[in-house]
Design brief:
Layout (H helix, E strand, L loop, with lengths): L1 H12 L9 E6 L5 E4 L6 E8 L5 E8 L2 E2 L3 E2 L4 E6 L6 E8 L3 E8 L4 E5 L4 E5 L7 E9 L4 E9 L4 H11 L10 E6 L5 E4 L6 E8 L5 E8 L2 E2 L3 E2 L4 E6 L5 E4 L9 E9 L5 E8 L4 E5 L4 E6 L6 E9 L4 E9 L3 H4 L6 E8 L5 E8 L2 E2 L3 E2 L4 E6 L5 E7 L7 E3 L2 E2 L2 E2 L18 E9 L5 E8 L4 E5 L4 E6 L6 E9 L4 E9 L3 H4 L2 H11 L1
Parallel strand pairs: 21-37, 22-33
Antiparallel strand pairs: 1-13, 2-12, 3-4, 3-7, 4-5, 4-6, 8-9, 8-11, 9-10, 12-13, 14-42, 15-41, 16-17, 16-20, 17-18, 17-19, 22-25, 23-24, 23-33, 25-33, 26-27, 26-34, 28-29, 28-32, 29-30, 29-31, 35-36, 37-40, 38-39, 41-42
C-alpha cells in the first residue's frame, strides 16, 4: 500500500489551488423546460438514474458523502443505481441525445460505468480538462417528462479521503467469504436454468449472438479449462482472453496510472458501413461516436504493453466502409521519427447513421482526415501517458476507395473479410462489471463485460432496458454466471462476485446451488 500513500501525499501537494482544475462541459439537448443544478458537500459517492421504458432519461440523483441530493428531473419506471467505492469518482459522462437525453454513461476512475436509457440519435462525450479533476455537479433542463439538456462541471475535492482510503486498504481481506455478492438476474426467465462453475479465476470468455438480435450463449474459462456452454452456440462469436491477473469487474474495470488507447470496439452492418466506434484508453475513459446497429466487433492488442499505433480500412466518399487497427509500442527509435504516441482523436458521424471520418493526432500534429468530415464531431484529447487500448465498431463490406495511414515511412494495409471479437488483458486484470440490455419478458439483447483495466467485451445489439451488475466489494471479481435459456437464446442472466482464495474455493458448490435457487 506504500505506493497509494505516496500517491495520496502527492495529490495533497497538488491542491494548493483547486480552482484551476475547474472546467465545464457545455450542455447538449433541446433545452426546453425548467433549469436544474445539483449541489452538495464533498465527493460524489453514489448516483441514481431513472429512464422511461425504451426511451428517454427522466431523472438523476447524486449522493454527496452520505446524503442524497434532490432529484434532477423526475422519478420514472426504471431505476439504475451505482454506489462508488471509497476513492472512486466519475471522470466521464457520455451518452446520446436529440430533443431529450436518450442515454447516459457515467464512467469512474476505476473503469466501471453506469449505463441508462437507450442508444438513439447523436452521441456526446464529456471529460474534465485536467487529469486530477472529477465530476462535481450536473446542470441542465427538464420539461416535467424527461431531461431535455445536460451539462457537467468538473473540479477537485480535498485529498483527505484518499489518505483514509489508503489506510483502510491495509486492513482488508480478513475473510475472503465476506466478499461474496450476487447480482440478481434480469430478463424474461423462460426455459432451463444454468450456472457456470470452475476452479480459480476466470481467464477467458466467449459470447455468441444471433444475427441482429439476442445473446444465445456464454462460455467461461477457469484457469486453463473452458467450462460448458451456457445456452447455445450460434452465428457470431465474441471472445476475450484475459492477461495474467486480469478479471472482470462490471462487469467493471480498474485502470493503470498511465493512459493509452488499448481497445477499439463498435458496430457495423455486413454489406454497408461502420455505424459506431468506441475508442477505449488504459485509464478507462472512452470516446463514442455513431449509432448502435447490427454486428459488434472488438479490437485489442495481443500484448499488454501495446497501444493503438494506426488505423487502416476503406471509404466510399460518404462513410467508412471497413476498418482495421494496428497495435504496438513506442520505442526510442520510433520516437526519433517525430511521430510518437497518439495524443488525440476526432471522429465524425452523419446524423443517426454512419461514421464518416477519423483524424488522429501524433504528438502535437494532427494527421489527415480519413474518410470525410460529417455533421457531428466527437473529440478526445488524451492526458499525458494515456493511450488507446481498444477499438470497437460496426461495419458493412462495400470496398471502394481504400485509405491507409502512413507511419514511420511504412505503409500498412489490411482488409478484413471476417471480424473476430477477442480481448487480451493486461497483468492484474479482472472482470469487475457486467452490463447490457434486455427485454423484461423476452431475451438478453446485449452484454458488456468490463475488466479492471478498463477494457471490455461487447456483444449483441442495443435494445430496450439497460442493466448494470457490480460487485458490492472493491476487491471482488466475477466468479460465476447463472440464468436461464430456452434453447434459442438467453432469457435471463445473473452474476456472482467474490475473490479467489483457498477459502473461497471450498464454498464454490454451495454458491452455485444458491445461485440456481435465487434465479
Amino acid at each position: 500500500m506504500l505506493s497509494i500513500v505516496f500517491f495520496a501525499a502527492a495529490l495533497v501537494v497538488c491542491q494548493a489551488n483547486s480552482i484551476e482544475y475547474y472546467s465545464y462541459s457545455p450542455s447538449v439537448g433541446g433545452g426546453s423546460g425548467t433549469s436544474f443544478s445539483s449541489s452538495g458537500e464533498g465527493s460524489i459517492t453514489g448516483i441514481k438514474v431513472w429512464a422511461h421504458s425504451y426511451y428517454y432519461v427522466s431523472g438523476i440523483q447524486l449522493r454527496y458523502g452520505t446524503r442524497w441530493g434532490k432529484v434532477l428531473g423526475r422519478i420514472s419506471t426504471i431505476e439504475h443505481r451505482m454506489d462508488l467505492f471509497e476513492g472512486e469518482a466519475f471522470i466521464q459522462v457520455s451518452g446520446k441525445y436529440g430533443s431529450y437525453i436518450n442515454q447516459l454513461f457515467f464512467v469512474t476512475n476505476r473503469g466501471r460505468f453506469l449505463m441508462a436509457g437507450r442508444s438513439s440519435q447523436t452521441a456526446f462525450n464529456f471529460y474534465p480538462k485536467h487529469p486530477e479533476s472529477e465530476l462535481r455537479l450536473l446542470s441542465g433542463r427538464d420539461n416535467g417528462y424527461a431531461l431535455t439538456s445536460l451539462g457537467a462541471h468538473w473540479g477537485t475535492v480535498s485529498m483527505l479521503s484518499i489518505v483514509i482510503f489508503a489506510a483502510a486498504l491495509v486492513v482488508c481481506l480478513a475473510n475472503s467469504t465476506e466478499y461474496y455478492s450476487y447480482s440478481p438476474s434480469v430478463g424474461g426467465g423462460s426455459g432451463t436454468s444454468f450456472s457456470s462453475s470452475g476452479e480459480g479465476s476466470i481467464t477467458g470468455i466467449k459470447v455468441w449472438v444471433h444475427s441482429y438480435s439476442h445473446i444465445s450463449g456464454i462460455q467461461l474459462r477457469y484457469g486453463t479449462r473452458w467450462g460448458k456452454v451456457l445456452g447455445r452456440i450460434s452465428t457470431t462469436e465474441h471472445r476475450m482472453d484475459l492477461y495474467e491477473g486480469e478479471a472482470f469487474i462490471q462487469n467493471e474495470m480498474y485502470v493503470d496510472v498511465c493512459m493509452l488507447i488499448l481497445q477499439v470496439s463498435g458496430q457495423y452492418y455486413l454489406y454497408n458501413y461502420i455505424y459506431q466506434l468506441i475508442f477505449v484508453t488504459n485509464r478507462g475513459r472512452f470516446l463514442m461516436a455513431g449509432h448502435s446497429q447490427q454486428f459488434t466487433f472488438n479490437f485489442y492488442g495481443k500484448h499488454p504493453e501495446a497501444e493503438l499505433r494506426l488505423l487502416s480500412g476503406r471509404t466510399n466518399g460518404y462513410g467508412i466502409t471497413s476498418l482495421g487497427a494496428h497495435w504496438g509500442t513506442v520505442s526510442d527509435a520510433y520516437n526519433s521519427s517525430g511521430e510518437g504516441s497518439i495524443t488525440g482523436i476526432k471522429v465524425w458521424a452523419h446524423y443517426y447513421s454512419y461514421v464518416s471520418g477519423i483524424q488522429l493526432r501524433y504528438g502535437t500534429r494532427w494527421g489527415r482526415v480519413i474518410g470525410r468530415i460529417g455533421s457531428t464531431e466527437q473529440r478526445m484529447d488524451l492526458f499525458e501517458g494515456e493511450a488507446f487500448i481498444q477499438v470497437q465498431m460496426c461495419l458493412y463490406y462495400v470496398f471502394l476507395n481504400q485509405y491507409i495511414l502512413f507511419i514511420h515511412s511504412i505503409v500498412l494495409t489490411v482488409i478484413f473479410y471476417h471480424y473476430k471479437n477477442e480481448m487480451y488483458v493486461d497483468v492484474c486484470m479482472l472482470i469487475l462489471q457486467v452490463s447490457g440490455q434486455y427485454q423484461s419478458h423476452g431475451y438478453i439483447y446485449q452484454l458488456i463485460f468490463v475488466t479492471n483495466r478498463g477494457r471490455f467485451l461487447m456483444a449483441g445489439h442495443s435494445q430496450q432496458t439497460a442493466f448494470n451488475f457490480y460487485a458490492k466489494h472493491p476487491e471482488a471479481e466475477l466468479r460465476l454466471l447463472s440464468g436461464r435459456t430456452n434453447g434459442y437464446a438467453l432469457t435471463s442472466l445473473g452474476a456472482h462476485w467474490g475473490i479467489v482464495s483457498d477459502a473461497y474455493k471450498s464454498v464454490t458448490a454451495a454458491t452455485t446451488t444458491y445461485a440456481l435457487s435465487s434465479t
